[in-house]
Amino acid sequence: MRNESAPPSLLGLSRDGLTALVSEWSFKAIHARSIWRHLHAYGRTDFGTLGGLPAGLIDRLSLSTTASWLGIARDTESRDGFTRKYLLQLDDGKQIETVLMRYAGRVTACVSTQAGCAMGCVFCATGQMGFARHLTTAEIVAQALHVSRVLAASTGERLRNLVLMGMGEPLHNYDATIAATHILGDTAGLALSPARMTLSTVGVVPGIVRLADDREPVSLAVSLHGATQEARAAMVPVAKAWPLDVLMEACRYYCDTMDRHIFYEWTLIEGANDRPEDAHALGRLLERQRAHVNLIPLNPTDGYGGLPTTPHAARQFQSVLAEYGLPSTVRQRRGIDIAAGCGQLASAR
Ligand code: SAH
Ligand code: SF4
């Protein structure tokens, strides 16, 4: 069980929230900025070494808040040399996975937003394990800071890209997830550009509409996998709650309101949704929409027997999409040997 009366984590506070707390304790607001930079820009919690901080404030911080990093339960590196996966320990004993990926000279952190997932997509290991709980803002922020600290201590690179595509459905945990993107985008901290933070959703319609209404600047990816209601619902159970036509209406609303495109994710499964007729159906669905299609050859999971598409079928799929003016990318398969690929993240508890 989580201790509900545990002191709040500093990692879950916005800069304004931290400033308010420091002022509430009757210390000068200016100290909040030093604490914030120490935490978020340098990944340090040893406030005692920070010159200029009043001793009373340091005591108050250690008494009334926590700022602990997530413990590493396991650290595995893929033979591909580009992918590293961390099994991270939460305070209540639950575990989550976070992935560090390198692609075309870029480093990306793939972070989780929930322990498990309630959405039950048939081919996804996280869905197969079921839902444990939402992650807090602090736990989402801590994953990005973990990757940033690993980079700082090894290659010295700066983390610039983040995908909310790890375990869980980010729009099922909207408030904590969005608060985390604000903290990670804060220019006095990690300063991730919102355009380089991509949130991927299985199609939680109220969440998509809210992102648009709130003008949230993160990039949006929507997982489709099927271009008819029937085909999609067979793979994605929540399609019954938010049918395809309702989802597409929300996507059009998002694109119009935000004046930007959406990435559509399509897991390519041999013989199931990788045939030319599937590509034509997707082409018709997205024709004349601002869209980029990311094609992900199926990664293996214990609970699903389908096979990944072949490179030939994937190329053919792309050329059909091109007939509809739709740009697409086939995702490189990475980290499969350590189960760090899309849809492979899971934990035993
Ligand atoms: N819950 C969100 C984000 C996490 S899943 C979502 O569903 O969009 C991230 C991506 O991995 C999604 O596009 C999802 O459809 C895809 N995925 C899930 N299982 C997969 C598998 N076995 N192989 C390839 N991609 C998979
Ligand atoms: Fe959840 Fe996404 Fe996996 Fe579906 S694909 S079960 S929404 S994590």
Provide tags for this entry.
11 helices; binds S-adenosyl-L-homocysteine; alpha/beta; two-stranded antiparallel ribbon; 349 residues; TIM Barrel; 2 domains; ten-stranded mixed beta sheet; DNA polymerase, domain 1; binds iron/sulfur cluster; 35% helix
Low-confidence stretches: none
Shape: globular
Bound molecules: S-adenosyl-L-homocysteine, iron/sulfur cluster
From the 3D coordinates, which CATH architecture of the largest domain would you assign?
Alpha-Beta Barrel
N to C succession of SSEs: HHHEEEEEHEHEHEHEHHEHEHE
CATH class of the largest domain: Alpha Beta
Q: Which structural class best describes the helix and strand composition?
A: alpha/beta
Number of strands: 12
* Strand coverage percent: 15-25%
Distance between the termini: 13 Å
Short overview:
By secondary structure, the chain is α/β, with parallel strands linked by helices.
Description:
It is a single chain. This protein has two domains: 10-64, DNA polymerase, domain 1 (Orthogonal Bundle), CATH 1.10.150; 71-338, Aldolase class I (TIM Barrel, Alpha-Beta Barrel). It is built from eleven helices and twelve strands. It has helices spanning 15-24, 30-41, 55-64, 125-129, 137-153, 174-185, 205-213, 229-235, 244-258, 276-286, 311-323, and strands at 71-77, 83-89, 95-103, 106-110, 114-116, 131-134, 161-164, 197-201, 219-223, 262-268, 291-297, 328-330. Strands 1-2-3-4-7-8-9-10-11-12 form a ten-stranded mixed beta sheet. Strand 1 (71-77) and strand 2 form a beta hairpin. Helix 10 runs parallel beside helix 11 (311-323). It is globular. The mean pLDDT is 94. S-adenosyl-L-homocysteine (SAH) binds at residues 121, 123-124, 165, 169, 200-202, 223, 265, 267, 296, 298-299, 301, 342-343.
